[in-house]
Amino acid sequence: MAVEIFYDDDADLSIIQGRKVAVIGYGSQGHAHSLSLRDSGVDVRIGLPEGSKSRAKAEEQGLRVLTPAEASAEADLIMILAPDTKQRFIYEQDIAPNLKDGDALFFGHGFNIRYDLIKPPSNVDVAMVAPKGPGHLVRRQFVDGKGVPALIAVEQDASGNAQALALSYAAAIGGARAGVIKTTFTEETETDLFGEQAVLCGGASALVQTGFEVLTEAGYAPEIAYFEVLHELKLIVDLMYEGGIARQRYSISDTAEYGDLTRGPRVISPAVKEEMKKILGEIQDGTFAREWVAEDEAGRPNFTKLEEQGNQHPIEATGKKLRDLMSWVDRPITETA
Ligand SMILES: NC(=O)C1=CN([C@@H]2O[C@H](COP(=O)(O)OP(=O)(O)OC[C@H]3O[C@@H](n4cnc5c(N)ncnc54)[C@H](OP(=O)(O)O)[C@@H]3O)[C@@H](O)[C@H]2O)C=CC1
Ligand SMILES: CC[C@](O)(C(C)=O)C(=O)O
Ligand SMILES: [Mg+2]
Ligand SMILES: [Mg+2]
To answer: Whose CA is nearest to atom 2 of ligand 2?
Structure first.
């Protein structure tokens, strides 16, 4: 089925400029949305708990910071950009009691709606604006006059105008410069979780760590292994980003291309594809969501242990040493968050 893609000319920025927006959370996505909405002429306030460490960052940028309940009460469009596992509590305690007829409840990812963790009332619009990239790059691209593509979805159209509102919001954060695709909460949630688990984060991290281990365990220098499997990966992915896998293959040597064509499918073997399908199944049937919610409720013991193990992987120390010598690589994540 053909997708609908919208660009700046399709969006009416005045719609979002006529709303009072509360952004709940000021992390990776929250800071990017808030600052770009403000720069697009939108009336924004930030909702953060009294003790939140994000408060100072938002205030430093001249944004008005209220509690989540105050911000929700004042606004007529509430965008929830707090961690997925915390959203249902914030919704119950701070947002739901302040929802009025005609308000809009927005999400940056469909997790809580897809897995029925939040059930909004029928008198509000429920929509999503989900940039397809990390928040810090969403902001950096906006400032550079570019944009990160975004998905929009409407779960509930109480006003009859929810799609135009979502598109207007997406344009205000730069998404419509690159392209805004209409989807559903289910499609966004399932593809986003699959992408980050199997390819972008889980798949790529494991591929890099394993490649580094194979080279160093065989006696090669960690510095050479680092450049080979991590640093150069960005350069290769840049070529894919610019012109697809074909462009990448055009630019590499024919020796590399022959290795790519014949050895790639041995690394990502049919067994790996089967495992990817299992991972997708766990996303579709809710197994992953239940596991993650339970892990968070238990205080994240497994998450913390695995994160620490990752930080201790030898590739991190090697990489830090080498990046410290390349002044242009270690760009601060942003000036603001
Ligand atoms: N990271 C990304 O680039 C992407 C994220 N998303 C989605 O965006 C949403 C936000 O994720 P992300 O930006 O990574 O989140 P972060 O973890 O970067 O930031 C979360 C923010 O929420 C704040 N927060 C924590 N608890 C509360 C609370 N009770 N009330 C209000 N604010 C609170 C945190 O404040 P404090 O500093 O006090 O902890 C912080 O400012 C999620 O739905 C995620 O799936 C979608 C696309 C990409
Ligand atoms: C790839 C991870 C992501 O889905 C994203 C930046 O888009 C996330 O949840 O952070
Ligand atoms: Mg994503
Ligand atoms: Mg995600």
So the answer is: 196
Q: Is the CB of 90 under 6 A from ligand 1?
A: yes
Q: What's the whole-model pTM score?
A: 0.96
Q: What is the pLDDT of residues 115-153, one digit of tens each?
A: 999 999 999 999 999 999 999 999 999 999 999 999 999
ipTM: 0.99
Q: Whose CA is nearest to atom 1 of ligand 2?
A: 196
Q: What is the pLDDT of residues 4-35, one digit of tens each?
A: 999 999 999 999 999 999 999 999 999 999 99
Tell me how many degrees the CA angle 46-52-56 measures, rounded to the nearest 5.
70
Residue 113: CB within 6 Å of ligand 1?
no
What domains are there in the chain, each with its CATH number? 5-183 (3.40.50.720), 196-325 (no CATH)
If one residue of 23, 24, 26, 28 were mutated to test the ligand 1 pocket, choosing by the most ligand atoms within 8 A of its CB, it would be 28
Ligand 1 atom at minimum distance from 82 CA: 22
